[in-house]
Design brief:
alpha/beta, Rossmann fold
């Protein structure tokens, strides 16, 4: 005979006297992840190992505190790691379309940017001053005069040679003209034409020789001009270096240990020396409006600016970045553009970093659902991890859709640990469908939804509450309130020996309880405030439950809580409404007839039954055949249905209920309507555990309470579900008063005895059952049905 479950096992209450503190304000805030030893171990390994591909996928249900726990863990770890370097983009003087990326020590990026700006400002001031000095004017005049003297000497030699050969050289609009001289006078053109032919030929011969000498002389003049230009350029370079040399030397001295910076400073110096005119005064452009003149005046100097895209001067330790909106550009940066005079333009100073740049040298956390939702983002992340560098490029250019020429910034080497946060299902999909996933994310950290309920973890729960209260300025909880929160954690876990790690749900109750405590001006949040928060949370969501309850009370939904009926059982099911689930009692009936159809599931025939429910019904046929069809055919046509069910049925938790209805219909024994039943069954007749046991029992209790508790009502559950009971205190009190009973059963035989009050009956050695028992009556009815079916068999069959 099944014994009634003691009311003390209806709920695993937590004794507040076991708390080591009177209230949570006397505890130290929690600085570690609790209840996630497996995940913590995986995180530690994945973050410490430096080999490529050991990025981490954090798998777990939403609400387990995955993000908060991972971010807290990373921030503590990052503080022990060295700072990441700064990154700047500078102009490439050899290729303006390919800006150069330079890494600097932490905090040096902004400093270098400011120093380069000061350097250019000083150059703009110093160079004009140097070229306006008397010393420069004197040296330049001397240099030019020396060249002019050489040119004058050369021209004198040319004139003397021309005179010796009977010619004079004169300037004309067309250049130098060679004119013959006769009797000391230049010969006009018309007189030259009138000369004898022999004389003309002689003059022409001498003129050609003179022109050859002139060409040689002109080449020497051009050489002198080039020499003059070179001399002036050399002078300008010497003067410029003298004026700014100390500035450049100071920069080189400060960054002597950074070869890339020294190379850039050399490039800046050479560009300044090659473009001295822009420092010596940019003339105003008359076609440009006056208000834009300052813009054009500063435009030539923009190429000397430094664009600091990553500045790690402030954070202590390695950077930790959480990207809530992982679009492609938010991750990998972009090159901004602006419209100037109707033309779209850009340059290296408009390069903007992405979160990957900011996390470089540290850690980055991304929700995988959001990452997969954004176009190009997942492929971009994989490319960056595989190549070990992060490039800034337009998504359209990456896909080959944009062919216009634009900036192509130099890629930056990437050294970053990436942590994805998502569900186990997405992890499985990525592992199965994306070949790169297993190579890039070799570490999986699983966040469990429960942890052991023991004294140590209970104190950690209290420390978590302390942390929450201090972080959000909530009322601290006294010992009784902490006890209720611990019990609530077991209720969420649906296990007397476990605590839920769905800290988001636990936190919501604590916040709401603090609100009620504050409204009452209480010093601490107490057990009453916690219970009120739980009740109010339920009340806000249980409208549908109340409507169904009303329909049952008014006999619109037919549920009986008194008497006994043949082939009729009160089944228990759970309805989920998002954030709220409740138990709904349903009447399960069975009808029996002679036939060979076996057990027919009306829900399935009506396309309202789910696959799991169908499986449970098919198991009933296996049980009946195994137990009663060893010496005769199973000549049975049984029809099962959930009465007044209009929304579909799934799950096998009602399979034992349906079997009891069949056994009652076959035996003719009435089933107590004061009891409700839940539990699945296997082909051996063993009653198996189900989910939602607390909601199911509470749902039937509410019906019994509404119709009047007589002391006979109760429920029958699988014995293995006793450890899952965390019923509300009202039910505990009802159990204590003997007004509601719970019967834990292990087998169908035990359950049918409770429901009918008749022994199930053991099979004897001859294969028969004890007379008067349930199984005897069922076996006899099945035998009679088999004989009836044989009588109606057509001849020859």
């Amino acid at each position: 005979m099944v014994e009634v479950l003691p009311f003390s096992r209806f709920r695993n209450a937590y004794d507040a006297s076991r708390m080591e503190c009177p209230a949570t304000d006397t505890l130290q805030p929690l600085e570690e992840i609790i209840g996630q030893e497996r995940a913590l171990r995986a995180l530690t390994f994945g973050l410490e190992i430096q080999e490529a591909g050991f990025n981490i996928y954090v798998a777990g249900m939403a609400g387990t505190g995955r993000k908060t726990a991972v971010m807290d863990f990373l921030e503590r770890l990052a503080r022990t790691k060295p700072k990441a370097g700064d990154w700047v983009y500078v102009n490439s003087f050899t290729s303006a379309y390919e800006p150069t990326a330079i890494r600097l020590p932490p905090g040096k990026g902004s400093e270098f940017k400011a120093e380069m700006a000061d350097f250019i400002s000083e150059v703009k001031r110093s160079l004009p001053k140097a070229f306006e000095s008397e010393d420069y004017a004197t040296r330049r005049e001397a240099t030019v005069r020396s060249i002019d003297e050489e040119k004058a000497k050369l021209f004198g030699q040319i004139n003397a040679s021309a005179q010796e050969q009977g010619f004079v050289i004169q300037m004309s609009p067309a250049g130098l003209v060679t004119i013959p001289v006769v009797d000391g006078k230049p010969l006009p053109e018309e007189e030259f034409v009138a000369l004898p032919e022999e004389t003309k030929m002689e003059i022409q011969r001498r003129m050609e020789k003179l022109n050859s000498d002139l060409r040689n002389a002109f080449r020497q003049v051009r050489d002198l001009d080039s020499k003059g230009v070179e001399a002036v350029d050399k002078l300008n370079r010497e003067v410029s270096l003298y004026a700014i040399g100390h500035l450049i030397s100071d920069l080189k001295e400060k960054y002597h240990d950074l070869p890339e910076i020294l190379k850039y400073i050399e490039a800046v110096q050479n560009d300044i020396l090659q473009n001295l005119d822009q420092f010596l005064g940019v003339p105003q452009q008359p076609q440009v409006p006056p208000q834009l003149q300052p813009f054009f005046k500063e435009l030539p100097f923009k190429k000397y600016q430094v664009n600091t895209i990553v500045d790690n001067s402030k954070p202590d330790g390695a950077p930790v970045v959480f990207e809530q909106n992982p679009t492609y550009q938010n991750l990998f940066g972009k090159v901004e553009k602006e419209v100037q005079f109707g033309i779209i333009s850009t340059d290296f100073t408009m390069i903007r970093p992405g979160s990957v740049h900011k996390a470089n040298g540290g850690y980055m956390v991304i929700p995988v659902e959001d990452l997969l939702r954004n176009p190009f983002a997942w492929d971009g992340i994989k490319t960056a991890l595989k190549t070990g560098e992060v490039a800034i490029e337009e998504p359209g250019e990456r896909m080959g859709f944009i062919t216009t020429r634009g900036l192509k910034p130099q890629p930056i080497p990437l050294a970053m640990k990436l942590v994805l946060i998502g569900t186990p299902e997405i992890n499985q999909l990525l592992y199965s469908l994306d070949p790169d996933f297993k190579d890039l994310f070799k570490v999986r950290a699983d966040f469990d939804i429960v942890m052991e309920r023991n004294d140590e973890n209970s104190m950690k729960y209290a420390a978590f509450i302390c942390t929450l209260c201090k972080k959000f300025n909530l009322k601290h909880l006294d010992g009784t309130a902490v006890a209720k929160v611990i019990e609530y954690g077991s209720r969420l876990a649906e296990d007397q020996k476990k605590l839920s790690t769905l800290f988001a749900s636990v936190s919501d109750i604590i916040r709401e309880a603090s609100f009620y405590a504050t409204r009452e001006n209480a010093q601490y949040t107490t057990a009453e405030h916690v219970m009120k928060a739980i009740d109010e949370k339920t009340y806000r969501s249980n409208l549908i439950q109340q409507k169904i309850q009303e329909f049952i009370e008014r006999d619109i939904f037919l549920i009986e809580t008194t008497g006994a009926k043949v082939g009729q059982v009160n089944g228990l099911s759970v309805m989920g409404l998002g954030d709220f689930a409740f138990g709904r009692p349903s009447r399960v009936t069975a009808s029996i007839g002679v036939g060979r159809d076996g057990v027919i599931d009306i829900e399935r025939e009506a396309a309202m039954g789910g696959p799991t429910h169908t499986k449970g019904v098919l198991i009933l046929g296996g049980y009946l055949a195994s137990k009663f069809a060893q010496d005769k055919p199973l000549s049975l046509s049984a029809r099962l249905v959930f009465e007044q069910s209009y929304g579909g049925v799934d799950g096998d938790s009602a399979s034992s209920t349906e079997l009891y209805a069949i056994l009652s219909a076959l035996s003719g024994l009435p089933i107590r309507q004061t009891l409700s039943v839940t539990g699945s069954v296997n082909q051996k007749g063993e009653v198996q555990a189900i989910g939602g046991v607390n909601e199911k029992l509470e749902g039937f209790f509410e019906v019994c309470k509404a119709k009047g508790l007589t002391g006979e009502q109760g429920a029958m559950i699988p014995a293995s579900n006793v450890q899952n009971l965390m019923l509300k205190e009202e039910m505990v009190e009802a159990g204590k008063a003997g007004k509601f009973r719970i019967y834990p059963v292990k087998t169908i035989d035990e359950g049918i005895e409770v429901l009918t009050g008749v022994p199930a009956g053991e099979r004897r050695e001859d294969g028969t059952f004890e007379e008067g028992t349930v199984n005897y009556l069922v076996d006899r009815r099945l035998r009679e049905m088999a004989e009836k079916l044989r009588e109606f068999q057509p001849a020859g069959r």
